[in-house]
Design brief:
The chain has about 240 residues and is α+β, with helices and mostly antiparallel strands. The protein contains 8 helices and 9 strands. Strands 1, 2, 3, 4, 5, 6, 7, 8 and 9 form a 9-stranded mixed β-sheet that branches.
């Protein structure tokens, strides 16, 4: 199993659509990522990663990262970092590399393939001269507890003292520290009809709804549904 940057292996970057979808459909319609996400590959290929299984000639994972600034504290989340980098305003000088997403093909989960992607991000951060890798982590099991505030959930522990959530736990095992909760990392806005198409559910009246795959309820009012996803900031030294 090897990790390459898109710049090193553009042929493998062209094959990332081989990776099965690990996210609920609505995540692919987030307000800011639909505008800027494609620019990561086009403008920062040296910071995007692909996990390649050479024995099976299969692309089985990917990792997206972006330079970020912590001069005024941790960023607001995925949306804010994309806007700061690619939006119309002035760019801040980056002092860390931030993960945006790390994905393993759902058919290969349980094989310990997430760790090489995170370790690859750390290597890329170090090679680029950054002192740290930060990550707005999407806790794997938070969707099972959408009514529990993430500020509490993030600190749940198992009997052995390690974090309850598998994704937070992996970061901790790789040496990361939990910094703080990122309450508004991504926003997804859609009409009732769009949300019904994305989820297969019906939303006959205004209110908050628990939606499969969502970490917190989706709020519906006046014909629109708004989902504001919280993440957990983890910090890795490199």
């Amino acid at each position: 199993m090897q990790v390459f940057t898109y710049a090193e292996r553009p042929d493998l970057a062209d094959r990332t659509d081989e990776i099965g979808d690990a996210f609920p459909e609505f995540i692919h319609h987030a307000d800011v990522t639909v505008v800027h996400w494609h620019r990561l590959r086009a403008e920062l290929p040296e910071l995007q990663l692909v996990l390649y299984d050479e024995e099976r000639d299969a692309v089985v994972g990917r990792g997206q990262t972006i330079p970020a600034s912590t001069a005024n504290g941790l960023p607001g989340g995925v949306d804010e970092m994309l806007e700061r980098r690619f939006g119309p305003g002035p760019q801040e000088e980056a002092d860390v590399l931030s993960a945006l997403v790390a994905i393993v093909d759902p058919g290969r989960q349980g094989e310990g393939l997430s760790a090489p992607i995170i370790e690859g991000m750390r290597r890329v951060a170090a090679a680029a001269g950054y002192a740290a890798l930060i990550a707005p982590v999407r806790p794997t099991w938070k969707e099972r507890y959408p009514l529990i505030p993430l500020e509490r959930y993030a600190h749940w522990r198992r009997d052995d003292g390690l974090p309850f959530d598998p994704w937070i736990r992996l970061h901790v095992r790789l040496g990361a520290e939990l910094a703080e909760v990122c309450p508004e990392s991504m926003r997804v806005t859609g009409t009732v009809a769009e949300w019904e198409e994305w989820t297969g559910m019906h939303f006959p009246e205004d209110g908050d709804y628990v939606v499969p795959g969502a970490l917190v309820p989706v709020a519906f009012a006046e014909g629109l549904g708004v989902y504001v996803e919280p993440n957990v900031w983890m910090r890795h030294s490199v």
